[in-house]
Amino acid sequence: MVDVREGQAWRALEQQAQLLRADLARGYAMRRWFQEDPLRFQNMQLRLGDLLYDPSKQLVTPEVSRLLNALGEERCLGPAMEAMVEGAPINLTEGRAVLHTALRDRRGGPRRVGGQDVMPEVGAVLAQMREFVTALRSGAWRGATGLPIRDVVNIGIGGSDLGPAMATAALRPYWQAGLRVHYVSNVDGAHLQGTLADLSPETTLFIVASKTFTTQETLANAHSARAWLVGALGLEAVARHFVALSTNAKAVSDFGIDVRQMFAFWDWVGGRYSLWSAIGLSVACAIGMDAFEDLLQGAHEADRHALEAPIAANIPAQMALVGVWNRNFLGFPSLAVLPYDQSLHRLPAYLQQADMESNGKATTRDGGKTQWLTGPIVFGEPGTNGQHAFYQLLHQGSDIVPADFILVAHSAFATAPNHPIGDHHELLLSNGLAQTEALMRGKTEAEVMLELRLAGIVGADAAALAPHKIFSGDRPTTTLLMDRLTPHALGRLIAIYEHKIFFQGILWDICSFDQWGVELGKQLAKAIGPELRGAAPGNHDASTSGLIAELRQRRGA
Ligand code: F6P
């Protein structure tokens, strides 16, 4: 079995972690580092186009940085990335290639899976998407009663929802006026009903997005949506109001959607990496096909960078290595993703799936048990909302929570006519910067006492209050700063996170591209469903049986 801790770099990093702990015990280490090295920011930053990556507020010394790069070499990050883009079957437990990078490859050369060039198919689906999106947006695609489509409802869940929903929200300034795109994911009927409440069947188009076309939630929502439409317009209307995005033509046809209205993708596209495939159709409806292709172009820029830049200059590799430092050597359990841009409000949810479904595993690639920590708990909220919710814990909690701050220099809304943008964006950015500074600097006891004295609080009162107002500082953050949230910039940002997650899977020797951990709950839910409807009780533990009985009684089953 591979033991990732056996390499020289890992062992040396363990020693560095001990040295760091001693330094942290002296207090306010990062303040000292910035004072001692005025070039720390300049020397640690990396750039890709207008994207600035600043890890200088991480608990990383030059020696730790050197050893992390050595760890990246030892764990063969470069060759691993090459194997992925060459179409090797690196999704070991499902025997599949992992080739989402081909979906955004803009160079025109071949990309092979099992010896076969997949690019002609990729190009054909993009052309099919362009034709459909153009017809829809121009009004040439009409509903069954001859009216143009005003509302598009994407029905999907997980990777068939989070990526498109996140990207559509992020690119709001690019939406076509008069065309609204909605996302329904939860099997809770309230989600579909609430969405349909304001819509007219005559002007609504449903996109049923499901890689497998077997997902319970999506099929339940799709069937109910079809019943809503058929109830109003009749069965023949389905052809003008339903399209499908899937790898499963038979199931699409069984559902009643003509496969000519299916946009295909392939088993080498992982669900949580499928935004770039036909699964992005709803995004393209909202922003147009040209902007969607800009999104692909931005992701491709990140792909080239991840593949070609040496580890020390490779942004996703550096993010992965710093994350491993925080997780495995410093023992920090989580990662906060904090976009200072309201348009990115679904980014934390999207990254939760991308990261936690990929690296929330404790089995090594050869089936052993990992003896080391793996993926962190990812959470977040857009700034400044998070500041008024959980930042108290970030600043003074007993756990250290590393955080990614995402800043955008120019508001996408700044040039919108009549938009009352005022100085909101300066307020937003100043808050983001202030938080990274505060988390790093903290506030010493002496500073607190001085502040209290100036406020007229002295003696026993000051002594009692001071401990509550001290900030330890040394709370690590990375800042990602970009010019504007364009489709290109969004594609680049997302692909950087994808590659970071991939690199971490390699560093931890786990299979990042399967998701067996979601299966057990699905299996059990299938058994419990009939029991709630009145079937004979199954063999459960006392708690589950008791709760089933309680629900049956309350629901009169
Ligand atoms: O949550 C498990 C999962 O398989 C995800 O990986 C996937 O994104 C989601 O379900 C939806 O799957 P599908 O696109 O096949 O409906």
Description:
This protein has 557 residues and is an alpha/beta fold. It folds into four domains: 244 residues, 3-Layer(aba) Sandwich (Rossmann fold); 192 residues, Glucose-6-phosphate isomerase like protein, domain 1 (Rossmann fold); 33 residues, no CATH class; 37 residues. Helix 12 links the parallel strand 8 and strand 9. Helix 1 runs antiparallel to helix 4 and helix 19 crosses helix 20. The longest helix is centred in the last third of the chain and has 22 residues. It is globular and about 80 Å long. The structure holds 6-O-phosphono-beta-D-fructofuranose (F6P). The site of 6-O-phosphono-beta-D-fructofuranose has 14 residues, from loops. 6-O-phosphono-beta-D-fructofuranose (F6P) binds next to loops.
What is this entry, summarized?
It is built from 23 helices and 13 strands. By secondary structure, it is α/β, with parallel strands linked by helices.
